[in-house]
Amino acid sequence: MSDPLSNVFSALADPTRRAILARLALGEASVTELAKPFQMTGPGISKHLKVLERAGLIVRGRAAQWRPSRLQARPLKDAADWLDHYRHYWEESFDRLDEHLRTLQTKGKDGE
Amino acid sequence: MSDPLSNVFSALADPTRRAILARLALGEASVTELAKPFQMTGPGISKHLKVLERAGLIVRGRAAQWRPSRLQARPLKDAADWLDHYRHYWEESFDRLDEHLRTLQTKGKDGE
């Protein structure tokens, strides 16, 4: 239903799904392997995998029993590219903070 | 309820909210000003602004009538930093594609 970028951001809006991606960055894993560290049931993990799969962030193998999940990082680039347009704004706010702190420091020294 | 990073990703998982941020990047705006280009009602926009505000992506003025919204880009940096850990993976997949295309090209030339 949603546009691809919304699907990616939505898939990332959950700490377990982000942790699954971090695990898959180390190599492919089955549902059983993924369930263990997260102390989740197989169906709980499968639900998260479906969200990640719909967002294009993982692909799953075909072998019925094993079906390992593999990270597909490509859609993360689209999310990073979108965010990159705002880099200027957060860097600017850091610059302003930096300037403000320097002003406070100078004032502090003047008072000594 | 959610962790801050999940709130940010969740707020970005909607094209209207992303467009509102793009508009606010140009300068602060009231609900009425935001509603016009999006052909949405004031309450519709207000709902989106609440989500953006909860994620820390905007702040709103206090004046009862005007209440302009202003972009706060700082939380976008956290999202970009998270994504940055995966840069290596999408760059690698591009490298592999590039290599594959070069192989195809070489094969094409051999066949000439």
Report on this structure.
- 2 copies of one chain form a homodimer.
- The first copy, chain A, is mainly alpha-helical.
- Chain A is 67% helix and 5% strand.
- The model of chain A has no long low-confidence stretch (mean pLDDT 89).
- In chain A, strand 1 (58-60) and strand 2 form a beta hairpin.
- The interface between A and B is medium-sized, with 33 and 33 residues.
Determine the structural class of chain A based on helices, strands and strand pairing: mainly alpha
Head-to-tail CA distance between termini of chain A: 63 Å
Number of helices of chain A: 6
Radius of gyration of chain A over all CA atoms, rounded: 21 Å
Biggest sheet of chain A, open or closed, and with what strands and sense?
Answer: 2 strands, antiparallel
